[in-house]
Design brief:
- By secondary structure, this protein is an alpha/beta fold.
- It has 2 domains: 13-46 and 309-408, Aspartate Aminotransferase, domain 1 (Alpha-Beta Complex), CATH 3.90.1150.10; 52-307, Aspartate Aminotransferase, domain 2.
- It contains 12 helices and 15 strands.
- It has helices at 16-30, 50-63, 79-90, 108-114, 133-141, 195-208, 248-251, 279-290, 296-304, 308-334, 358-369, 395-408, and strands spanning 37-38, 102-105, 125-129, 157-161, 179-183, 211-215, 241-246, 259-262, 268-270, 276-278, 339-341, 347-351, 371-372, 374-375, 386-390.
- The chain starts with 15 loop residues before the first helix and ends with a helix.
- Bound molecules: D-malate.
- The site of D-malate has 5 residues, from loops.
- D-malate (MLT) binds next to loops.
């Protein structure tokens, strides 16, 4: 009989979004006439930018001819895409990142989980709370934690509570940690980290020999000029940080799949004999062994977002979702709800009215308004009493959902 990875048995519930899906399905079955509006998972609704479609058609035609057909590519991605990323997303923001430090992949969800392959199991790992559940769950699966307590917190992890009281910007840990996950613009709170705050983290990482895993999947939603898009805008960050980015939320690739992870050659970890090992080498080894590259057609589509037309089209889609965010933020504020986020992020994070628990508010909202959101407690213990509304939706759905909040929600 095959033994299983018993760490999976420590996981508290199903992964958050399938769990919501299950509950919505049950509600729909019991209420077949309800017209449900989904503002839960942050999944895009608008079609791919025309520049991507054009590039994909062209790439498909290339695949049809022997002379231009492509088989395996370099696992790390085609040079045309890695160079466009290094140029547009880093060099043009003053970040010292070169093309061969960029690893193209099929998603940041996978990369933020897979990165654990190159780290030991005895690291002290910190993360903000609430947090993108993948960071926690993959640490549990890898055997890096103990069991969960009643609040759903796993033994061994260092949680940094992010609440309205600290402006969703938690104090740095008082003890040293080996690894910390940071996400800005933040999923789920919609908060952003300032340059000063990130500089404090970089200084902490240098002083404590800590690796920062920085998720900036939502960087395109930053509207305030002073907020860094990348951690590499902070001097010294390339010695301590790995950054994750994705085309999912910028160019609508949630169903197309393309992302990238930047592992600068100057970030190191410690081997058992105390020697320093560069993480770029390890990630390259992992990536080339367990991954075979993103489809050529998809990489050409991603490249098209770097063209002048592509950039304009991506901007227009991001602006569209941010206009949704503004509608949601303003409507809920007018209703007297306490609302955060939605200014530099496509997520609105609200304090549940009357001290309700997050899942109680989920039930109330689906029952009274037939609207689905995400319970804050699903992102961690400090998310209890909060609720996330996603701005990824059609305008008609956002307007209809807000009309239902105004007229049907009893608060
Ligand atoms: C979310 O709703 O938090 C996101 O869609 C999750 C993801 O990007 O995987």
């Amino acid at each position: 009989m095959a033994n299983i990875n018993s760490n999976y048995l420590k996981l508290k519930a199903g992964y958050l979004f399938p769990e919501i899906g299950r509950r919505v399905k049950a509600f729909a079955a019991a209420n077949p006439s309800a017209k449900i509006i989904r503002c839960g998972i942050g999944d895009v609704t608008e079609p791919l930018p025309p520049a991507c479609i054009e590039a994909m058609h062209k790439a498909v035609d290339e695949m049809a001819k022997r002379e231009t057909f492509k088989g395996y590519c370099d696992e790390q991605g085609y040079d045309f895409l890695r160079e466009a990323i290094a140029r547009d997303d880093y060099k043009s923001f003053g970040c010292d990142i070169v093309a061969d430090e960029v690893f193209v992949s099929d998603g940041s969800k996978c990369d933020t989980g897979n990165i654990l392959d190159i780290f030991g199991h005895d690291n002290v790992t910190a993360m903000t709370d609430p947090v993108y559940p993948v960071y926690v769950d993959t640490n549990v699966m890898a055997g890096n934690t103990g069991a969960a307590n009643d609040r759903g917190e796993y033994g061994g992890l260092v949680y940094l509570p992010s609440t309205a009281e600290n402006n969703f910007t938690p104090a740095l840990p008082t003890r040293r940690v080996d690894i910390v996950y940071l996400c800005s613009p933040n999923n789920p709170t919609g908060a952003v980290f300032t340059r000063d705050y990130l500089a404090r983290w970089v200084a902490y990482a240098k002083a404590n020999d800590t690796v920062i895993l920085y998720d900036s999947a939502y960087y395109a939603y930053i509207t305030e000029a002073a907020i860094p898009r990348s951690i590499y805008e902070v001097p010294g960050a390339r010695d301590v940080a790995i950054e994750f980015r994705s085309y999912s939320k910028t160019a609508g690739f949630t169903g197309t799949r393309c992302a990238y992870t930047v592992v600068p050659k100057s970030v190191t970890g410690k081997a058992a004999d105390g020697s320093r090992v560069d993480l770029h080498r390890l990630w390259n080894r992992r990536h080339t062994t367990k991954f075979n590259g993103v489809a050529y057609v998809v990489q050409r589509a991603a490249e098209a977002t770097h063209s002048p037309e592509g950039k304009k089209q991506v901007r227009a889609t991001v602006d569209f979702y941010m206009a949704n965010a503004k509608i949601i933020r303003e409507t809920l504020t007018k209703m007297g709800l306490k609302v955060y986020g939605g200014v530099n992020a496509p997520y609105i994070w609200l304090k549940t009215p009357g001290g309700m628990k997050s899942w109680e508010f989920f039930d109330k909202l689906i029952n009274e308004c037939n609207v689905v959101g995400t319970p804050g407690s699903g992102f961690g213990a400090s998310g209890e009493g909060y609720f996330r509304i996603s701005a990824f939706n059609s305008r008609a759905n956002v307007e209809e959902a807000m009309e239902r909040f105004r007229t049907k929600l009893k608060i």
